[in-house]
Amino acid sequence: VKQIYGVECEYVHGHRYPIKGEAALNLYRIAQEAVNNSIRHGQADWIRLTLEQDTERGRLSIEDNGCGLAQQLTHADRKSMGVANSNGNGMGIQIMEYRAQVIGGKLSLLNRPEGGLKVSCVFSNQL
User: Fold this and answer.
1) Which CATH architecture fits 2-124?
2) Long-range contacts of 110-116, Cβ-Cβ distance < 8 Å, separation of 24 or more
């Protein structure tokens, strides 16, 4: 990410439990989409990926210092442009939500108080 886009990217992890097959692929794709969005839409110049796990649950978080979720367009504007579903989310976000559901997880997107966005996927570590 640093070499191609000039964006600092950090990976932080604690104790690792094995994540297998479909779950590993879906978490990878969620991280890939979130990083891509941070660069393309958020104009971030740093990104941090964090994987936290215990015996029951895991959490993948992708944080950046970009502009956060776009507040400029109303939900109706985004829907009329074809870039939002009924929740106001774009296709990339919808796909990340779907991938989280496939592995029994839940996706959340929150603007960070200090600026930027945090995308989190909480999932069962029993996969």
Assistant:
1) 2-Layer Sandwich (3.30)
2) 111/68, 111/69, 112/63, 112/65, 112/68, 114/65, 115/65, 115/66, 115/67, 115/68, 116/42, 116/44, 116/63, 116/64, 116/65, 116/66, 116/67, 116/68
